[in-house]
Design goal:
Elements: H1 4-7, E1 8-14, E2 21-27, E3 32-38, H2 45-55, E4 65-68, E5 74-78, E6 104-107, E7 112-118, E8 121-126, E9 135-141, H3 148-158, E10 170-175, E11 182-188, H4 205-221, E12 224-225, E13 234-237, E14 242-245, E15 252-253, H5 271-284
Parallel strand pairs: 3-4, 6-10
Antiparallel strand pairs: 1-2, 2-3, 4-5, 7-8, 8-9, 9-11, 10-11, 12-15, 13-14
Length: 302
């Protein structure tokens, strides 16, 4: 289940002079968008998300917009589909994707949802090809057009990376069961939580060496910058006592400085700085420096 702090998100709104104001809020857990209208000029989307969080679990799926009073109660609801702000997302056909040798596909209806790990990420399982328990994997997908480009590039980069002992393995490309369109991908599931989620483990010098090595390999051998090295993107595979890096949605080719979303290299997000800040954060449990924008993060502050 997605935690309450990450459950709601708003990308757009309508704030006419004098009001009323409307924010279009995404409920990541229910994978739906609901418009929240309030009197006056409300330029803070957090007010709308707070109101929605109180009512979302009781709202039927055919409700697309709610009108909220100053006290946070629902004045009226709207079921007209013209009020639905959800936009159609393009999913490419499988033949538009060149699969590297050895990368397989799986249909969405073969996946059994086990848990919602976060926005656009579910824990799922599918039958193992040999006798034994079903294989657990993480299914990453998108249903907002704003994330289409980033998701597509992450999938294409991750599945082409050589297998590495300190990178969570790419698993399969996921296609829909109707037309065979590409809707996402899966990667191996590593239990135990990230370094941000699970602080009970003593961080080992061995893991730091492994993190430095995988960053060196990405940067110097493959020409790839992860650009989001942080405790939230580091797992520990306890079966082999190894750090595991995942989540390549900000990764980019180091020699590419174009401004296409999810592709351009940004020196302010360089991986060396990421390793240093991550080490400091893991040891001290102080993440105040990392909460600053990347361009304001200064190693000399440590």
């Amino acid at each position: 289940m997605i935690d309450d702090e990450s459950k709601y998100f708003s990308l757009s709104g309508d704030i006419p002079i004098g009001g009323p104001s409307t924010w279009h809020v995404t409920d990541w857990d229910q994978r739906r968008m609901i418009s929240v209208t309030m009197d006056g000029e409300q330029d803070d989307e957090s007010i709308a998300t707070e109101h929605l969080s109180r009512h979302s679990s009781q709202l039927p799926s055919h409700i697309y917009r709610i009108y909220i009073s100053h006290s946070g109660e629902i004045i009226s609801t709207y079921t007209d589909t013209k009020k639905d702000q959800t936009q159609c997302v393009h999913y490419p056909f499988l033949h538009e994707l060149v699969l590297p040798e050895g990368v397989q596909t799986i249909q969405r209806d073969e996946l059994e949802e086990l848990d919602r790990l976060g926005p656009d990420a579910d824990l799922v399982a599918y039958p193992a090809w040999s006798k034994g328990p079903a294989k657990k994997v993480v299914f990453k997908y998108y249903f907002l057009w704003q994330y289409t480009q980033m998701s597509w590039k992450e999938m294409n980069l991750w599945m082409r990376l050589p297998r590495h002992s300190n990178i969570v393995p790419f698993d399969r490309v996921v296609v829909d069961e109707l037309e065979g369109r590409v809707i996402g991908f899966t990667n191996d599931y590593v239990p135990g939580g990230s370094l941000e989620e699970n602080k009970s483990r003593v961080f080992k010098l061995r893991w730091l060496r492994q993190l430095i090595q995988v960053v060196d390999d990405l940067n110097l051998r493959y020409g790839i910058a992860h650009q989001d090295i942080a405790p939230r993107n580091l797992l520990v595979d306890e079966s082999i006592d190894s750090i595991m890096l995942f989540d390549f949605n900000f990764a980019a080719r180091i020699n590419n400085t174009s401004h296409d979303e999810g592709e351009s290299y940004c020196e302010d997000r360089n991986d060396i700085k990421g390793v240093i800040f991550t080490t400091y954060e893991v040891i001290t449990r102080d993440d105040s420096l990392r909460r600053k924008p990347h361009e304001e993060q200064n190693i000399n502050d440590l």
